[in-house]
From TrEMBL, chains A, B:
The lineage of its organism: Bacteria, Pseudomonadati, Pseudomonadota, Gammaproteobacteria, Thiotrichales. Signal peptide: none annotated. Residues 1-77 form the Fumarylacetoacetase N-terminal domain. It comes from Thiothrix eikelboomii. GO terms for molecular function: hydrolase activity. This is Fumarylacetoacetate (FAA) hydrolase.
Length: 337, 337
């Protein structure tokens, strides 16, 4: 089934969305919010599934036209947002651009950062930021929402705790990252509010594209109306979602509704570090990688980071060309404090 | 007023606690949970205050004996937990022990890490961890809970957004920190679930001890029944709470109920790095600092990290000797997965 949250109050109003994203029906009689559904998933998911079945067969009373623009992020705020960096090509590229070798342990031990989760931005809402000098970048990713995960759970156990999947725009402020990481405590100001796709879907909605804990579909990234990336999220994902979740849960339990991200999707494409769409490749899922390729090739980056007014669209189509999650489609704007 | 959450479900049941921590009354008729109260603070705080006034004057019907052991952390799970490192002496000590100078910028630019907030431990509950080899340590701190804070808010604006204060045991796994920080993305597995005091209090409950955005009272740390630290939380706090909150809100808003921590309380005591209780000083608020002093003085640490069965108690008394927040008092135990 496919779930979304209409904008309402702090946590939105839960709706069930049809497979083709054309219709929706309120699910607030079952659970007022997506978090409430996740808090009691075993009991409530079958009821949501029945409503979804009725909607998809055209038999749900009170259904209405689905509008992605009316959506908040599926969880407008969450108790946990941890982002892995499962596409090690992305990590290698970032480091190579600054002449730093990547430790070989990065192939066995996932990178993960603890994100902030109290103020996500809606999928069609502007991203307000105070300064273009911060080096504004998007990062297109896939994320899962888990059920309760016990501390120390194995990847096998974690695989059974994945309840929903979404897309992510993990907005990053590249200009703030070097100084912040140099302080040693990881990202904070350099990772402002993130954005999630209008719709969260259960793994079964992906059909054969959901295999081995990975989503085997291209992630379409359109920057200022031009295709920027179409990397396949199932390729070069060194750590699958069950492994990333197990990493997050090693020393503490995860609460129902925990969002765990894949990190920026990045394909090597049988080359050393992949190539841009303009070069005939599948392109990239963030500006930083293109700048790194440019730096590796020519000694300096040519592509600028985002300016106010720039737009970013992130979407994933299934084998039939149908949008799976709806689209993140938004503009970066100047923040007037 | 003083608020707490009785253990119940995922978010507890809100109660108002008397100033002397002897009595309590359910506040669920006003707000079912502390998060719900924070979500609509302007409207609900006056009603909670009226209930508090009635309780403190012995006129609250249905009041009952307050039991700290029945409490969850005031917010059993939260949308935001960000921990500063405002006592720069702590940072200097940590670095000195490994022969690393501290950048002078650390005196102007606060260190802060993004914590996980989906699974806090109750103040009297055991802290389950899988291995003593992880270097289990406590960190005694003060934290505030904020209202909504706009992105880019000044410290002056942030000062008016502090709704409640609590104590913290920011459990840390010292053995996992070096490798994790070397990866560059900050703490994750090395910071398991944190613990907060039974009671959260409004700033006015601190009277004259709440000044300049700091709590001017000793933080009593008792380790295995022996006094380990009594550092004054108002001294050597280089950045006050409004400054730390402003740092957290620089590039994104904070949602109501955001928890912002002070970092480990640490006093220099007119010496270079402070001294232990056994040496006549005010001692420390974590084992790591004692080990650092030992390392600085003798070349190697003598005090071991926590073993299963060890207990830690964290409390703060007002000028009259009355416990302000109740006590965190708990045992580290072996986790059986």
């Amino acid at each position: 089934m496919k779930l979304a949250s209409l904008k309402q109050g702090r946590d939105g109003e839960l709706i069930v969305v049809s497979r083709d994203l054309k219709h929706a029906v309120k699910a607030s009689g079952i659970a007022p919010t997506l978090q409430a559904a996740l808090d009691d998933w075993a009991n409530l998911a079958p009821r949501l599934q029945a409503l979804s079945d009725a909607l998809n067969s055209g038999q749900a009373p009170l259904s209405f036209t689905f509008d992605e623009g009316a959506c908040a992020s599926p969880l407008p705020r969450a108790y946990q947002w941890a982002d892995g960096s499962a596409y090690v090509n992305h990590v290698e590229l970032v480091r190579k651009a600054r002449n730093a070798d990547m430790p070989t342990s990065f192939w066995q031990d996932p990178l993960m950062y603890q994100g902030g989760s109290d103020s996500f931005i809606g999928p069609r809402d502007p991203v307000p930021l105070a300064s273009e000098d911060w080096g504004i970048d998007f990062e297109a990713e896939v994320a899962v929402i888990t059920d309760d995960v016990p501390m120390g759970a194995s990847p096998e156990v974690c695989a059974d705790k994945i309840r929903l999947l979404m897309l992510v725009n993990d907005v990053s402020l590249r200009g703030l990252i070097p100084a912040e990481l140099a302080k040693g405590f990881g990202f904070f100001q350099s990772k402002p509010s993130s954005v999630f796709s209008p719709v969260a879907v259960t793994p079964d909605e992906l059909g054969a594209a959901w295999q081995d804990g990975r989503v085997h579909l291209p992630l379409l990234v359109t920057y200022n109306q031009a295709l920027f990336g179409k990397a396949n999220a199932g390729e070069d994902m060194t750590f699958n979602f069950p492994q990333i979740i197990a990493h997050a849960a090693k020393t503490r339990p995860l609460g129902a509704g925990a969002i765990i991200g894949s990190g920026t999707v990045s394909n090597k494409q049988d080359t050393e570090h992949g190539s841009a769409v303009a070069e005939g490749g599948v392109g990239y899922s963030c500006i930083a990688e293109v700048r790194m390729i440019e730096t590796i090739n020519t000694g300096q980056p040519q592509t600028a980071f985002m300016k106010f007014g720039d737009t970013i669209r992130i979407e994933m189509l299934d084998a039939q060309g149908q949008s799976v999650f709806g689209a993140i489609d938004q503009q970066v704007v100047a923040y007037k404090g």
